[in-house]
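C-alpha cells help. One example:
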Amino acid sequence: MSAPWLESLRNQPRVAGFLDRLALAPPKSLLLEGGTREERLGLALYWAARVNCREAHPPCGACRVCRQIAEDACRDLILVNGAEGSISIDTVRDIRSVLGDAPTGNGHRVVILAEAQALGDAAANALLKSLEEPWPGNLFLLLAPNRDILLPTLVSRSFVLTLGWPKAMAEDSDLRDILADLGAFIQTGTGGWLEWTAKKGNVDVGLARRVLQEVQRALLQASYGNPLSELATVMARRLDVVAVRQAGVVVENALESLDASANPALVLEWAAIRIWGLMHK
C-alpha cells in the first residue's frame, strides 16, 4: 500500500522534519497552515501515523496502525473534513464525548479538523474548551490555508507550522498580468479585470484555482506584515487584520465553488468584488 502522505513529504520536507522532532514531545494542539489542501491533509495523516506507529522508524506505512490511519479506519483517529461542509457544534460535542476515554491503542488519539475555517463560532468555542483543558492521550490538529481565518483563541492555543506555498507565479508572465489587473480592480473598482473574466474562453478551472491560490499567498504575506508581491503590498496597506481574515474566507468559499463545478469566471468576479468591498467598507 502506498501511504497517502508520501507526496506531501516530498513537497514539504522542511515541515515533515519539524513534525518528526515535535513527535518526541507532541503539542496538545498543532495548526498546519499554508501549502495546498491536499498537502495539509497528507501531513496530518503523517502526524497521526508518526505518533502512533511503534516500528523502529515511524511511520513505517506498512504496519496495522499505519494502514488503518491511511484508510481512515483507525479507532484512535477522528477526521472531520470541513471541505465537505460546515463543522457544527453537534459534531464537536460528539468528539468531546469520547475524549475522556483512553485511546484504544498504545499511542495517542489524534483529532484532525481539516479546513477548520468551516467551524462556526459556536463550534469553535466548544472546541476551545477541549484545547484549554485537554484530556491526557488526545492530540488536536487543525488545518487551514491561513491562521487568520480562524478564531484567534484557537490559534493562540496551538503550535503553528507554516507549509511552503505552491510554486510562485513569478515565472508566469500571463498570471502576473492577471494579478496586476486584479490588484487594480480591488483598489479602484475599474480596469481590465471584469473585461478579462467576461471574455469567453479566458478562464478555466485550473487558471481560476491558480489565481485564487496566489490571492491566498498574498493574504498570508499581508497578515505577516511581510508583503513580497504587488498584490500582497496592496492588501497589507488597505486591509486590517479582521478584513484579511474575511478575505481569506471569501477565497476559501470561491475555491469550494470551483470544486462544486461553478462557472470559474463568475467565481473570480464574485471573489474580486467581495474583496473590493472589504477594502472600501
Summary: The first helix runs from residue 6 to 11. The first strand starts at residue 29 and ends at 34. The chain has 13 helices and five strands.
